[in-house]
Amino acid sequence: MNMQSSIYTVIFSLLSGVSAASLSDENSEQATTLAVKAEQTVSQEASTNDPSVPTLGTPVLIKPVEYVATAKAIYGSGVVRPVSEQTLAFKVPGYVEKVRVKAGQSVKRGQVLASLTLEEMDAQVSKAQSVLADAQRQRDRINSLRKDSLASDEQVRQAETQVSVAQADLRLANFNRRHAQIKAPADGRILQRSLEVNEYINPGVAAFVFADDKKGWMLKLNVTDRDRMRLSLNDSAEIRLDAYPSQRFEGRVREMAGRADVRTQTFEVQLQILTDKPLYSGLIAHAVITPSQNEALVKIPLESLISASGMDAKVYVVKDQKPVLKNIQLAYLQGDYGFVRSGLDKGDLLVVKGGSFINPGDALAIKQIEQTQSFLVKE
Hints:
Blueprint: H1 3-16, H2 20-24, H3 28-49, E1 58-64, E2 68-70, E3 74-82, E4 85-89, E5 94-99, E6 106-107, E7 112-116, H4 119-147, H5 153-178, E8 181-183, E9 188-193, E10 200-201, E11 206-212, E12 217-223, H6 225-230, E13 236-241, E14 244-256, E15 267-274, E16 284-290, E17 295-301, E18 305-309, E19 312-319, E20 322-334, E21 337-342, E22 349-353, E23 364-368
Parallel strand pairs: 1-23
Antiparallel strand pairs: 1-22, 2-17, 3-12, 3-16, 4-11, 5-7, 5-10, 6-9, 7-8, 9-11, 12-15, 13-14, 13-16, 14-15, 17-21, 18-19, 19-20, 19-22, 20-21
């Protein structure tokens, strides 16, 4: 068997599902027989499908070029967080008298979570009430004297001011007493508890971390500056949780950072997780975001590329039954496919298999993929 027949047989075997490795183990006579059968098969298909296709030539598969609106998916991983995560604290200092909930516990709106001893607050309220009562008596006395012209208008105004100040102090004392308790602001879950009974706690120190169930859950992840520019609010996403490996969750972009992180130079993106399943803060999740911004691209298998340098590449198209080399511009690569931005015209017959075995002007044995058949697979 000569070299041409050997190469011909290997190429056709690749296109028809027979591996070249299997042929290398056969003897010369078997290889020659395969070559003859290959030529007969191409000849029969050519005469059946298109009488103008040559009966001899290098077998190739072709497909018409079609530009389709395409958006490059954005991949990212992060952690699940509540949409509304609140730190609850006492407004006033004091000793913790009761802690009524534990970490992880579900609570109802208005439920008391913890309280301080009220002895000091009760004393402040009682003092404010006494001061107010005294200020009111002084005001009434000054008003009586004013009727007999024994008090000035200035004394009347000062008495009224004292009453107003005392009323404000009483309101403040009552307010502080009410906030000697921490209540659940909504139906939700206690994510973290940071206090114990009999501890002295200062105002503003975190006592609980609370998640509002009604607001749902989100995934926080980081994207590059290029990906940030392609994203818009409400872009759709598919989310997978390690805790639910066999399930996929729908998501959407709910918020995007307006500036990059100073350390990583990436942008934080928050995805709303659309699910009623019980989730927990800190779960690991992975997302594929589909930007709404897209452009018309041609998706081609990488094996159709003859050569490439950066995003500049070359492919074969068939014109007048002959291969013609074309320069193309790739937008990006993804998996086993390239996405062509320019260089191909709609309707061009792209050589998707067999291009590495031909030269411009070679005779071809062409087999065209049906329009309803795709050489692309879901990634």
